[in-house]
Amino acid sequence: MEKPETPETPDRPTELIEYEMMVLGRHVHMGAAGKRTSGNLERSAYILLSRLQGQGPMSIGQLSEAFGLNASTLNRQTAALVGARLAERIPDADGGMARKFRITEEGARRLEEARAEIVAGLDKVLGGWQPEDIATFADYLKRFNASIEHIDGRPWPRP
């Protein structure tokens, strides 16, 4: 029986990071950290609602700048949120012409439900880890993301 091909041993640590990020992306996509049942939010809805919750009401232009997405993509995504009553359009409190999107109570409830399921899945995956290791891993992830945001010029609001 022939041995299946496996990735070569990485020459540089960044090659190992690339490989592990690819595997992580697969696990996240497949829901391996915990099957979502009650949150039931599509990925784009989860991310948009998280941003609206963290930053407050935003216009299509502000969302476009924050995510680096074109207005037509965001119009489709926000229309789906509004249609599902997870977000609502409101006038700009500063008197601007563009209307803004704000997370609704239902959107906040569903977001929290989805977030709780994701955290429960992570608790399961990290169950055998020492608390200090989990905290260190979280610090490294935050630092990694902040480096990306610095290069991209699009910081994500953090609590």
UniProtKB/TrEMBL annotation:
Residues 32-134 form the HTH marR-type domain. GO terms for molecular function: DNA-binding transcription factor activity. It comes from the Bacteria. Gene3D superfamilies: Winged helix-like DNA-binding domain superfamily/Winged helix DNA-binding domain. This is MarR family transcriptional regulator. It comes from Streptacidiphilus pinicola. The lineage of its organism: Bacteria, Bacillati, Actinomycetota, Actinomycetes, Kitasatosporales.
